[in-house]
Write a structure and sequence with these properties.
Layout (H helix, E strand, L loop, with lengths): L6 H13 L3 H4 L3 E9 L8 E3 L1 H14 L2 E12 L5 E12 L4 E14 L2 E9 L1 H8 L2 H9 L2
Parallel strand pairs: 1-6
Antiparallel strand pairs: 1-2, 3-4, 4-5, 5-6
């Protein structure tokens, strides 16, 4: 019988997988009925439900991500609830098409049960990524319905 990973270990595997670009493996860290809320997502869904939907989302990122993400300044805070952690970190971002590099702040509140993420509230600086790509005017136009 294999040992169940702790919330800290699951988050570490998630972050390592993202940094290595192993997006096809990430959905396996989530429960079948997991819920992920991307609170600061400016366009698109802010809530993704289910491992299969997450697998599709990670496949889209893998197919078209123009960025390399290197985690730095990682702090994982455990709570009174053994299933719940709060992780804070920065990404050192390299945007390949523009050559821009910058830092992007992140916070995730993860609930992990039986070694799988069942709920995640993600606070990523999506606007920094959009600005680095030069796509901010298109985002504003999309939000304005133009």
């Amino acid at each position: 019988m294999s040992e169940t990973l702790s919330p800290r270990e699951v988050f570490t595997k998630l972050l390592e997988g993202i940094a290595a670009g192993r997006y096809s493996e990430l959905a396996g860290l989530y429960a079948e009925d997991a819920v992920v809320e991307t609170v600061f997502e400016p366009v698109g869904p802010r809530r993704t439900e289910g491992r299969s939907a997450l697998k599709e989302r990670f496949a889209q990122v893998a197919a078209g991500s123009p960025v390399e993400l290197t985690p730095a300044n990682v702090v994982i805070r455990e709570t009174d609830d053994p299933e719940l952690i709060v992780a804070e970190w920065d990404y050192q971002v390299h945007h390949r098409p523009t050559g821009r590099t910058f830092e992007s702040a992140n916070i995730q509140v993860l609930r992990v049960r039986d070694g799988l993420i069942v709920h995640s509230r993600d606070f990523h600086d999506h606007l920094a990524l959009i600005a680095a790509s030069g796509a901010l005017p298109q985002l504003v136009a999309a939000l304005d319905g133009k």
